[in-house]
Amino acid sequence: MSGLVEYEKYGAIGVITVNNPPVNALSPGVPEGIVEGVEKGVADPDVKAMVLIGAGRSFIAGADIKFLGKPRSETAKNYREIIEGSEKPVVAAIHGYALGGGLETALGCHYRVAVKSAKVGLPEVLIGILPGGAGTQRLPRLIGPEAALEMIVSGRHVPATEAGELGVLDSVVEDGDLRNAAIAFAEKIADQRPVPRISQMNEKVTNVDPAIFDAMRKKIERRARNQIAPYHCIACVEAAVSLPFEEGVARERELFQEIVNGDEAKSLRYAFFSEREATKIPDIDKSISAVDVRLAAVVGAGTMGGGIAMCFADSGIPVKLLEISEEFLDTGMAKIKANYETSIKRGSLTAEGMAERMALIDPVISYDDIANADMVIEAVFEEMPVKKEVFAKLDAVMKEGAIMASNTSTLDIDEIASATKRPEAVLGMHFFSPANVMKLLEIVRGKNSSKEAVATALKVARRIGKVGAVCGNCDGFLANRSRMPFQTEMNILIEDGALPEQVDKVMVDFGYPVGPFVVGDMSGLDIGYAVRKRRAAESPNEFRKLPIPDRLFEMGRLGQKTAGGWFTYKKGDRTPHPEPEVVKVIEDVRREMGIKPHDFTDEEILQRLLFSSVNEAAKILEEGIAYRASDVDIMWLYGFGFPRYRGGLLFWADQIGVKKIYEIMCEWEKTYGDRWKPANLIKELAESGKSFADA
Ligand code: 3H9
């Protein structure tokens, strides 16, 4: 047997164990090894049945994503059919995850036993493909097309108990000795005939109402915009109810081949690996021990602080929430309560769940009360003197070894750290708003931040369900600094002749959930105004004035909170309506600035917005503020809603080609001036024919 799969005998049961760490992916050699095991069991007259189990932490997490779309052996193509064809029953014993090709393998087996903590699913759609190992044909035959459609199109990981109820699993056992439980199960069913084969179960796929497929297409219309995989998944399940098994499998293979090497699949695979890569910091290896955060503290119970406290409570970590007065504390706690109540109304949280979470948040008003926390996150006003005062107080009380983080979105981490005698314990942990919802956690490594502090922040990010990515210290850090030129450019586009609704439409068509002007209205025009004021004071020469949003702010058009900003909103409705008053401001400013407005193509709008940020991101890479281009992409995917199926800002740029972008920027530099001067890195990459991925 290959080293990836082992075979042993326990009485009359042959046990085939997949051992391909870390997640038992179906890398070359694994399907072949499974087939060898099955053949051994079939050939041995003393063996009555077999168990297929995974070593380590999972059953099988799917095909090896690194090998997707590459040639496979004939055995690897057909191993599920070989398992299913075995005259002796094979029982899949599932713990950890049975995902994608992993669940498809289990569906090729005759029975499935799982422990309670296991999860099963067909998440291929999330990496831009479809279950290509007959999953779209077997699952509907086993649990009916409606339930199968939901599982396949959502790609969600289904907990074992629910999978048992759906009929995916034959038995759900207590966590513990799965191997023995599965052997006992195999002994029980060993003599039962006929051996159940899902490919031959056709009852559930006859007389199906065909309307379910169109209903699903309609349901995913908004979410699946510009994507192919979700629709191909539906087409495959449709084939399962209209074609015999073998023809359905052929159809599935055909559609799989069509998309496996397409842009969508490549971008999503890139995003999958980039997310994992982001946690690997060149000089921080496993020997660096992260602090075990058993008690957290948050300073400031405003919107951000409250949201951060919720992140800890949601993950079962007790958290102290500190404010300067009972009054502020009560307001903060009331907001948290209201947020949880909204989740209950939406059905995503139970009343007991809310009570458990609220019990984990301990509101306090004295710094002494948070002294024994393992990590503290400051979320007070974005003003340096205030931050420094807080950090000096924290320095005085926090226990030795505690990590002290600031949630600042722009301020200098090193200066904040200088307010303490332990700058090594200080770093940035920048949450995005709303903190309890947005997945990105930007971890800012100051010049003195210790490796332990960074490792702790990364570990905490994972524990609280965030995607952590690390960057260096600079104004705006990685995420907001790379986003800033986009913010400026969208305003310049308006000065030059575009309208907010036109720009928003281009970006929504590109794949953003909402356009940037609507986002501006949602966060409030006062935010940008305050940032511009600060920047104007700090660096008056570099600062580009933006008279249109300044004037809207001064008119009291602050966005959705005042029923109008860039757009006007009707009461209780978030639909943006173009506003003549705004158009008048735009026209006035154009006239005063002596600008002759011109028409923009959609492509020009898209490129002007995104190239401006590509240029800044290149400078960030050049300065070593980012470890790698893919970290920029992770921040854009999880912080700014960049469409995942386009990979991320710099992955998208690489698809266009750095050389082409460089040429366009050089032209724009001539037309529009200095702001389009290409970053040195862009020039270098263009001249050497390289990409951001190579940088
Ligand atoms: C498929 O099955 C297609 C078939 O239908 C048909 C084919 C014809 N491949 O996420 P983690 C690596 S498509 C390769 O940190 P966790 C991962 O990169 C597949 N590598 O652990 C990481 O490596 P490193 C359908 C994989 O405990 C390490 O394992 N299946 C794969 O947080 C640990 O990963 C999926 O889409 C893979 N399939 O989460 C499931 N999976 O240490 C994809 C993981 O070098 N996987 N790695 O950074 C997952 O969703 C999560 O990894 C899982 C565990 C939930 C399983």
Provide an overview of this structure.
The strands form three sheets. Strands 12-11-10-13-14-15-16-17 form an eight-stranded mixed β-sheet, sandwiched between helices. Helix 1 packs parallel to helix 2 (74-85), helix 4 (135-143) crosses helix 5 (145-154) and helix 27 packs across helix 28. The radius of gyration is 28 Å and the shape is globular. The relative contact order is 0.06. The protein is an alpha/beta fold and 695 residues long. The longest helix is centred in the middle third of the chain and has 21 residues, at 326-346. The chain has three domains: 5-259, Alpha-Beta Complex (2-enoyl-CoA Hydratase, Chain A, domain 1), CATH 3.90.226; 296-473, NAD(P)-binding Rossmann-like Domain (Rossmann fold, 3-Layer(aba) Sandwich); 479-601, Orthogonal Bundle (N-(1-d-carboxylethyl)-l-norvaline Dehydrogenase, domain 2), CATH 1.10.1040. The protein is 49% helix and 11% strand. (S)-3-Hydroxyhexanoyl-CoA binds next to strand 5 and helix 3.
Q: Could you list some keywords that capture this structure?
A:
six-stranded mixed beta sheet, Rossmann fold, N-(1-d-carboxylethyl)-l-norvaline Dehydrogenase, domain 2, 695 residues, 2-enoyl-CoA Hydratase, Chain A, domain 1, eight-stranded mixed beta sheet, 17 strands, binds (S)-3-Hydroxyhexanoyl-CoA
